[in-house]
Amino acid sequence: MSGIEVFNLLFRFAAVGVQFVIFWRVVADVELRPFKGLFAAFILCTLAYTVVSSGMLFDHHPEVILSLVPFTFPITWLFWMSTHALFEDDFSARPLHWVLLAAILTVSCTEFYFSVQAWAPIGGFLPAVNDIVSLVLVAHALYVAWRGREGDLLEARRSFRLMFVGGVGVLIAIIVSTELSFVVLAVDSPSMALTLLAAVSIWAIVTLLALQLLSLRSDSLLAALATPAVAAPSDGIAPEDRALYDKLQKAMEQDEAFRTEGLTIGALAETLGAPEHQLRKLINQAMGYKNFNAYLNKYRLAAAKAQLADIAQARTQVLTIALEAGYASLGPFNRAFKEATGKTPTEFRKQALARTASLETMQ
User: Fold this and answer.
1) Are 27 and 136 in the same domain?
2) Exposure of 100 by Cβ count < 10 A (0-12 exposed, 13-18 middle, 19+ buried)?
């Protein structure tokens, strides 16, 4: 056995050990849902991939390796979904997510079936389609992690976003790109050097995730995310934050700063003449918000509901109301409104105006 083969196995055994620890900790201790289920499944699938992609165990235990292959099919989908669940508050799976999973599994199972029948990797478009879809999902996961950094009020999660984009995502992209290169170049037996690169990348990924997500500290990232956001009463604001709190309340309730399209917490801090980190801490720890957009939505949706229920503005377009409330377009407004009320803006307006008309008739 060559030196590269030895290191390949060592890194894979080390990765498997860390994966077992992560899985046990997530199942036993993590309360954050749906992240808990998605991430636990992701770790199990990466464990299967660690074994399957070794390139050395198939000759000795082909049946075992083949039985583990199907568990590798949804890896990038689970990574993508776990990213949404971790970085987007109140995330829930939608029908489109499950349709995408079904499509990925269908293509992967078809490729696997013909590969087993021929007892060799198949050519054609199916393997390339799988790897391209995987790259797209990884790229979008990195985008999801990066785009929300500005409005994230949890400092531990804001820091983790940078490590996630620069570390975990890049390593996964390397692994997927390597597999895609095998397909494009029609390589039947990947070199041990590339196999070792994949082993080191897998070990680095799971180690980074373990260090960042599974800290034993009570203020760790997952503990902070699983803790319900509770706003302190106005008389419970710390004395050192009282002046900033009063200025913030005036800016939002009297000056209606929330109506500014594209308002960021940095711009708001500059308007208030306060350090950004102090404003982040105030809105998060004293007012109970984990995300700046959620804080803005409190005011924007209240203003929009008042306009929608106003019979004098019954002919005002929903888009106009959304823009006046501070939204850049109708889509984000509709999604935020439906999540908060369970109704579309049009449904809410119809019911509110019907109630108003009924009261006027009774009078």
Assistant:
1) yes
2) middle
Neighbours of 138 (CB within 10 A): 24
Count of structural domains within the chain:
3
Residues contacting residue 109 through CB under 8 Å, at least 6 positions apart: 70, 73
How far is 217 from 223, CA to CA, in rounded Å?
9
What are the phi and psi torsion angles at 310 (to 5°)? Answer: -85, 115
Cα gap 194→309, rounded to integer Å: 63
Structure confidence by residue, pLDDT tens digits, 165-203: 777 777 777 777 666 665 555 545 556 677 777 788 888
Same domain? For 188 and 43 the reply is yes
Cα–Cα distance, 2 to 264 (Å, whole number)? 55
Say if residue 240 is in the same domain as residue 220.
no
Query: At which residue do the structure tokens 């060592």 appear?
Result: 10
Task: For residue 350, give Cα distances in angstroms to 299, 302, 323, 324, 335.
Answer: 21, 17, 20, 20, 18
113 & 254 share domain: no
CA distances from 11 to 195, 200, 206, 210, 241 (A): 11, 6, 11, 16, 50
Q: Give the pLDDT confidence score for residue 9 in this predicted structure.
A: 81
> What's the CA gap between 300 and 88, in Å, rounded?
19
Establish if 14 belongs to a structural domain: yes
123 pLDDT higher than 50: no
- Closest by CA to 225, choosing from 58, 355, 361, 33, is 33
Asked if residue 281 belongs to a domain, the reply is yes
